[in-house]
Amino acid sequence: MATMDKKNVSMNDVAVAAGVSLKTVSRVINEPDSVRESTRDRVHAAMEELGFRTNFAARSLKLGRYGCIGVVLFHLSGGAVDMIDGIADAAEERGFALTMIKKRAGEKMTLAEAARRMSQLPVDGMIFNLRQMVDDFDTFEAPKDLKTVIITPMEHPTCSTVSDDQEGGARMACEYFLDHGHKNVYFVSGKKESLSSQCRMKGWRAALETRGIEPPEPLQGDWNADSGYAAGLVLADKPDCTAVLAANDCMANGVMMALRDRGLRVPDDVSVIGFDDELYKTIPNSILTSVKFRHRELGIRALNEVVAGLEAPSSRSRTLVSGVLVERSSVKDLRA
Amino acid sequence: MATMDKKNVSMNDVAVAAGVSLKTVSRVINEPDSVRESTRDRVHAAMEELGFRTNFAARSLKLGRYGCIGVVLFHLSGGAVDMIDGIADAAEERGFALTMIKKRAGEKMTLAEAARRMSQLPVDGMIFNLRQMVDDFDTFEAPKDLKTVIITPMEHPTCSTVSDDQEGGARMACEYFLDHGHKNVYFVSGKKESLSSQCRMKGWRAALETRGIEPPEPLQGDWNADSGYAAGLVLADKPDCTAVLAANDCMANGVMMALRDRGLRVPDDVSVIGFDDELYKTIPNSILTSVKFRHRELGIRALNEVVAGLEAPSSRSRTLVSGVLVERSSVKDLRA
DNA sequence: TTGCGAAATGACAACGTTGTCATTTCGTTA
DNA sequence: TAACGAAATGACAACGTTGTCATTTCGCAA
């Protein structure tokens, strides 16, 4: 039985127990092939006996790096799970751990503050997950020696950014409608302050304008089904409304329910497309066509971008992860 | 302008620049009141000028602690977002950061492995989020100097555990049915390997047996609506089925849709209760009564438990966070 | 001005690891 | 057996911080 007198077992303790020098213990851990097998076994036995674990602080102090990537969560939303999942998996694969801090609910936080806080923690690089605007976005400068990647649909003057192609996804959905013979597309937005919602709206608008169509007034929603339902009631009264793009699936479902309650059928009378492709989880035999973003892939890209930039923190790139249109049967083909 | 010759700026560099000793710089950071204002200003100026940031490794090496709590994610599911949110907020509040690692998809990982990995990272204590069984659960022993909390519904011989009271929640739902005059309750389960599903089933069974009712064969689902729909079709044919408890809201919705498609009304013909209270997000005017667990609270408790145990890692406790029955109108009162 | 206690500052060791370079041990050949 | 080069091991400094204790400086009373 190991005596548990000392709080922490150091390499030196192991060395003494094994009758070798401290440096040899270090070698057993970092370059096992360079030490004779008999010695190695003795050291391993001593480590086991004493319950030795390498001291992270000492090791990283000497090495000058941590093997950790910082993640700042400004806002934790639905899609964030998959994104974190991607980040974590990619990190694991490359031998990095994650160091995480989060803006507290209701607390205002700037990029500068977050960066200051993060840069005092064990991190070799950092990822900011930004789903809403912050005041100092444009003026922010990342620490010169710490690769920084921002997950956001906006372009940043100095930092690398990674994002879903929300705008492109919305455009894709609109064009899908138009290509199927629809003459116009109505839009139900998410919460005003959400960057996702803003980008989706922008893409919708751009797609229509490109084809010379005047975009109708968008309807304001809040991501939840009830707001979609309310929007649906309004849309049901518009005779020219044959196509509705809702900024997420929940609202799309609300829209569909409202249309149905008003005696309109989907897709026969009105076609609908949503975002995020999650309705099938909740609705049996869901028919909703939806634009799906690959959040997991997004996380992986973000992490890889950080790791790739560790040696050249001031490099800058912009990555867009395209969305996918998951076709079901909520869009009617009006051609011929 | 600061000259950027050296990679990292140390306290010594600041000290030289400010014309004071290294120790004074340290004091400016850790006990500002003990240094004269004029000196302090000079030091602050130098820190600013040189872009000094305290070196985490050196600091924690000296202090013998990190100010970080480790979080191991064995499985990242829906409710996990809120839980992480709670953990992160509570950590922030107490001045801790999080160090996170995750079991990779498909990779088998034991508690022992996870603990070994984690204990080489910067952590003062750790939280394991365990939603499925692992092989070494019962035999696992946490490092004696690292407070370890496991989030799991099962009791552990040596570690503190924190969990939603899934069993109690299921019992609560069943009793609600029975108290409203129902004579029996059918159950639709989630994925077999899920501990949540198992516990919910256990609570359902216990509640019935307590009242001397023989529990009917449970129906196997997979958390998604389609499996609930399939179960609903089966249940629609059982004349004695007046009450259905589904292990989550999505399946509950599937059940309701199936019943409706078979000409049965909810709640007039059959009553339904789900879990997680999330249907309202997707379904406008949702009527589903549901057992909601406070995942955020769960995370907060877990973190507080770790922090409370930092000084006495071998202490052991068991925390259950009760669920809440969110009443809507999917349960009919059969009493006279 | 001098003396004194308190406040402010500094010198130096220590935390536990890894890199550098020196030393010892080993196996081989003459 | 001696001599040699290669392999194995060790001694010591260094990473950047904080704790301990010594020293200097300050403000104020005599």
Radius of gyration of chain A, whole Å: 27 Å
Quaternary state, please?
homodimer
The assigned structural class of chain A equals alpha/beta
Q: What share of residues of chain A is helical? A: 25-40%
Question: What is the beta-strand fraction of chain A?
Answer: 15-25%
Number of helices of chain A: 12
Q: Output the helix-strand order of chain A.
A: HHHHEHEHEEEHEHEHEHEHEHEE
Give the low-pLDDT segments of chain A: 1-5
Q: Looking at the structure, what is the overall shape of chain A?
A: elongated
Physical arrangement of strands within the biggest beta sheet of chain A: 2-1-3-4-5-11
Protein chains sharing the most extensive interface: A-B, 65 and 65 residues
* Number of β-strand runs of chain A: 12
What is the makeup of the main sheet of chain A?
6 strands, parallel
What distance separates the N and C termini of chain A? 85 Å
Tell me, rounded to a whole number, the average pLDDT of chain A.
Answer: 93
